[in-house]
Description:
Blueprint: H1 2-13, H2 24-33, E1 35-39, E2 44-46, E3 55-70, E4 73-80, E5 85-86, E6 100-113, H3 114-123, H4 125-132, H5 139-142, H6 146-156, E7 182-183, H7 189-199, E8 203-207, E9 213-218, H8 219-227, E10 247-249, H9 254-263, E11 268-272, E12 281-286, H10 287-293, H11 298-306, H12 311-330, H13 335-360, H14 366-369, E13 373-377, H15 379-382, E14 394-398, H16 403-426, E15 444-446, H17 447-459, H18 463-472, E16 476-480, H19 482-498, H20 502-510, E17 535-536, H21 537-555, H22 564-574, H23 579-603, E18 609-610, H24 617-625, H25 628-640
Parallel strand pairs: 7-8, 10-11, 14-15
Antiparallel strand pairs: 1-6, 2-6, 3-4, 3-5, 3-6, 8-9, 11-12, 13-14, 13-16, 17-18
Helix pairs in contact: 1-2, 3-4, 4-6, 6-24, 11-12, 11-13, 12-13, 12-23, 13-16, 17-18, 17-19, 20-21, 21-22, 21-23, 21-25, 22-23, 23-25
Amino acid sequence: MMNVIVHRVAEFLKRFPPFSFLSKEVLEKVAGSVEIRYLEKGETLFRQGQAAEAHFYILKEGAIILTESIQNQEEIRDQCDEGDVFGVLALLGKRPYLLTAEVQENSLLYAIPVAIFEEVLEENSRVALYFAAGFASGQVVVRQDLSESQKARGAFKIKSRDHSLLIFSDQSEIKFSEKVLICSPDDTIQKAAALMSEKHVSSIVVCQTDMKPLGIITDKDLRNKVVSKGIPLDTVASKIMSTPILTRRKDAAFSDLYLTMIKHRLHHLVLTEDGTDKSPVCGIISDHDVLLSMGNSPAVLIHGLMNTLDVKEMRLICDQAEQMLRYYLENELNMDFVASVMTEVNDIIIKQALRIAENSLVKEDEVLRKIPFCFLSLGSEGREEQLLRTDQDNALVYEDVPEAIAEDAHAYFLKLGTAMVEVLLACGFAPCPGDIMASNPKWVQPLSEWKSYFSEWIIRPTEEAILSSTIFFDFRPVAGNLGLGETLSLHIYEEIQKKKVFLNFLANNALMNPPPLGFFKDFVVEKSGEHKNEFDIKSRAMMPLADLARLLVLSHGVIGVNNTFKRFDRLVALEPNYEALFKQASKAYEILMRTRALEGLKNQSNGRFIQPENLGKLERQLLKNTFSPISELQNIVKVRFQLDYFPS
């Protein structure tokens, strides 16, 4: 009978982390040590301040809430559901409980002895990481390390196998030329060079009559060995060829070919039938071929974008970029790198859109076409955070012109902005629901008018003005005369210095969205409409952090830093006493960006609305942990800007 019970306990435990990380033998050992407890509604398992017991717990069935006593009032910190692990202070800190565990419904618990589980912690790094990451219920109150949480998410899931990106997986499709240009060792240098020029290639293989390679001549050889040293052009090819020649089989693994070229600093690698120079040449691979074989690498995509003005081709490259993005996100690559790559891709698309737009207006008045202007990215793209092709937010500023041509200039730049927006639409970027785009006459203005816009928003911070500020203050000059954007940034800084009370209005706005956990510490979801019961990760989690970062950076007079997690990184240097909090806020925002993008890629959407019930237990807990810095930052802002005395 005992064996049956142990088996049932083990079957239950293995459904939930961290027990799901254990081997069958270890799991059965843990299950055999479990103490089964039944508690009735209204009972208390342990109290805040009580010495930690020699067990921690996993809820088998029922409901338990974890509360904290603050100024004689009980505040709910977490609610435990089936499979939740809690009471881990006995395992981790060996200090008094910081929370009280109250039984909400008749509940069945498994109490797991600390003594037996400490061995598991020492031997199983994934189990240790689970607790270090703060995934146990209520644990985020005890310790908060989102860096560990992010690391855990990467360690606990199945990796993507996008073979076009795994260049050392030997799964990449190798592209090389089977038509190899050859010459005889007795041919002159001039003949060899003429053949290379005729075929538009950068190398020629010197072969015997049986096609066995003797050496190779490249453009570099012609420059360094012939031109620079004045060798006569009637010299035979064998005198300047690089030899002995390095060869490989054409069916060799991609990693072998690639690493051979890197190790020997080769721009060309000759392929033969058996991989030696004793068999006929059957192909050649160049460093350019390697680049193409890497498929979705940033270098290939960016190179492709920079060399096309075909909108259909640009759209295909955008699709490829999203596949690259998926791989980067699923494999937990550094978000700074991911965002930088996607920003570079998006910026090049914008610059190519400008070229296409200017080409379409080539017949317009030359005076108008010579007026300096700048295309501005706003919102997430302005902050270098637009990973998916979400809504466009952009505008256009141009240099002030004489009154006589003001109307014509506005008409011209409106055409230019509209043409650019249309290219971006064709590339898959959605239109802005609020029509904040360079196709809207209101957002295509001369520099003086843009200065008036910002001055008005700062001097008269109405609700609409504050909303505009949160969008337009994150502008980033991308294409055209970038100096116009820099001039505008300086104007904003000077205006805020004149009226610093504007920051109080921004602060008040930054408190409009409280941390998105409800009374029972579950996600605050939409109550009605198209997205009923879905969680709005943008407005409820990302926007509060973006608003707080913007406010605090502006309060220090910092301009030119738009990215949210970079703003928090800057704040670490500016306010070292809050270093831990700012680092957690930065990491939280990175995790939210990654989560939204993955949801968008999975559901072919903008990723804004998430169904919490579709998230795994670990993913739900990770997301909840990111909300903690919001509350702490809002409390700091509330005190710093004296918002208790500020009219709402």
